[in-house]
Amino acid sequence: MAISPLVLFAIFALVYGNGVLPIEATHHVYRNLESVSSDTTNQPYRTAYHFQPPKNWINGPMRYKGLYHLFYQYNPKGAVWGNIVWAHSVSKDLVNWIPLDPAIYPSQPSDIKGCWSGSATMLPGGKPAILYTGIDPNNHQVQNLAIPKNMSDPFLREWVKSPKNPLMAPTIANNINSSSFRDPTTAWLGKDGYWRVLIGSKIDTKGLAILYKSKNFVNWVQAKQPLHSAEGTGMWECPDFYPVLNKSPLTIGLDTSVNGDDVRHVLKVSLDDTKHDHYLIGTYDSAMDIFIPDKGFQNSQSVLRYDYGKYYASKTIFDDGKNRRVLLGWVNESSSVADDVKKGWSGIHTIPRAIWLDKSGKQLVQWPVVEIESLRVDPVNWPTRVVKGGELLPVTGVTAAQADVEISFKVEKFEEAEILEQWVDPQILCGRKGAAAKGGLGPFGLLAFASQGLQEYTAVFFRIFRYQHKNLVLMCSDQSRSSLNKDNDMTSYGTFLDVDPAHESLPLRSLIDHSVVESFGGEGKACITARVYPTLAINDKALLYVFNNGTSEVKITRLSAWSMKKAKIN
Ligand SMILES: *[C@@H]1O[C@H](CO)[C@@H](O)[C@H](O)[C@H]1NC(C)=O
Ligand SMILES: *[C@@H]1O[C@H](CO)[C@@H](O)[C@H](O)[C@H]1NC(C)=O
Ligand SMILES: *[C@@H]1O[C@H](CO)[C@@H](O)[C@H](O)[C@H]1NC(C)=O
Ligand SMILES: *[C@@H]1O[C@H](CO)[C@@H](O)[C@H](O)[C@H]1NC(C)=O
């Protein structure tokens, strides 16, 4: 059974009603949950600057009194399903994290079998409130409320639950399936004074975002219709619904309750059936309380994704400190379950990404938060140079297993671009035409985690096709040679990139961290995250190259690479 791993806390400052949140007084602290043993932390695949728990957990953020809070789903009983708690870490900079005791754990009938995912909302007066899914004694999914015990504590160590929990429950009357009713979003406040929240659900194979409304955050009433739904998409997990600014400066983030001119809305859902995070851009009709996407799920092939690699159950928060919207996602392992058990941990987070609307209005753009650049040391910069067809150029002077690389290509001659006769799913195309398949214009890009004799490498590259009289840019992350250990999932990932190479350069950034390669094409128009476990290219045995396996030459207009320091994580 899938559970939604991210628990998010958003920040916005509004009105917390006076005494409208009755709370439960008792609080027991679960100890014994942080069992870091040295053999789980001292391994070639442990990441150095990606958030990663000692073992078996996953999570999401919030900001309160200048601190970012990350709540992650954790099972204290390890392999046994159940008793999921909200573990908790805090950070000043989204880079270094301090562990705290779990924030929410089973203590009421409404969550006795687990505290699953949810979101935080900042109520008026700057008071946070968490809505989360609890599992009741009948294994029904219900929605609960918790608020901080001591608002003066910036660490928000203790949380108390409403005695009125559950606040939202499946009934025969409301026709909600009790095993498909989870992951409340951050709530938003309408002009009519009602709070609104979405809960992920499905009816048969129709995915839906059920809408609830409340005046006081305690008494919630289901709206007559969902905010949005789509046939054939299956269960919607971890919905996220937020406004983005549609005028310059586009990078400014908006509080979740903002609507009006110059605002578009984004609905993201994590599809349980495919394990992908898809998003739609559209208009939120606040009078009808419906979301009208510009392009819906009907043509599932073209529905956008945050990340075309290993990535799920993400959530955003509005960061009022830096006026940006920040996206955090969970990255699953690609190793076998047996290897995960051996490693003793599984799952990491991506580097938090700022997210905003592209100037085309047709898609979102993501970029690693600027704070991660504080870990950069020993820069390597190349002058402009040409890479001929078949050339392989080593990038020396960086710790290649723990690095941040930015490269930009410019293509001047397009004659040798391969012809694409008909549209092909880009992931399939990347599988067929990997780095080792010689081309015309590309593949060119980076080889990360390369071993000395190139028995292993993870290739991130572009390949330009001629399709319907236009240049079509394919971006791939090719894992097919990432490891000699064939127990790993080595699927190649890819997407088409909305960049016109005749007029624009082709920038690529990869964050490389021991077992993860997070890549950003076209300055964040396409993101691909890969988990890889090389056997030879580990630690100081890992090498980094620029390669061109096409016949046509391309120009490197920029290469900047840095070794990355280790972050302090838990
Ligand atoms: C609340 O938190 C503040 C700041 O950490 C602390 O000084 C105070 O003692 C706490 N109050 C209670 C009742 O725990
Ligand atoms: C409720 O959802 C569960 C889990 O997806 C499914 O097995 C079951 O058939 C559903 N029940 C109904 C009545 O749709
Ligand atoms: C996690 O990865 C495993 C192994 O690659 C895969 O079978 C599973 O479906 C993935 N789960 C999610 C939620 O992505
Ligand atoms: C380039 O293509 C050749 C021929 O297909 C292949 O043998 C070689 O491994 C490729 N290089 C890379 C870096 O994949």
Automatic annotation (TrEMBL):
Residues 371-563 form the Glycosyl hydrolase family 32 C-terminal domain. One of its GO terms (biological process) is carbohydrate metabolic process. It comes from Clitoria ternatea (Butterfly pea). This is Acid beta-fructofuranosidase. It is a single-pass type II membrane protein. Gene3D superfamilies: Exo-inulinase, domain 1, Glycosyl hydrolase domain, family 43. Pfam families: Glyco_hydro_32C (PF08244), Glyco_hydro_32N (PF00251). It comes from the Eukaryota. Keywords: Glycosidase, Hydrolase, Membrane, Signal, Signal-anchor, Transmembrane, Transmembrane helix, Vacuole. It catalyses: Hydrolysis of terminal non-reducing beta-D-fructofuranoside residues in beta-D-fructofuranosides. Pathway: Glycan biosynthesis; sucrose metabolism. Residues 50-368 form the Glycosyl hydrolase family 32 N-terminal domain. The keyword Transmembrane applies. It is found in: Membrane; Vacuole lumen. Residues 1-17 form the signal peptide. Belongs to the glycosyl hydrolase 32 family. SUPFAM superfamilies: Arabinanase/levansucrase/invertase, Concanavalin A-like lectins/glucanases. One of its GO terms (cellular component) is membrane. InterPro entries: ConA-like_dom_sf, Fructan_Metab_Enzymes, Glyco_hydro_32, Glyco_hydro_32_C, Glyco_hydro_32_N, Glyco_hydro_beta-prop_sf. GO terms for molecular function: beta-fructofuranosidase activity.
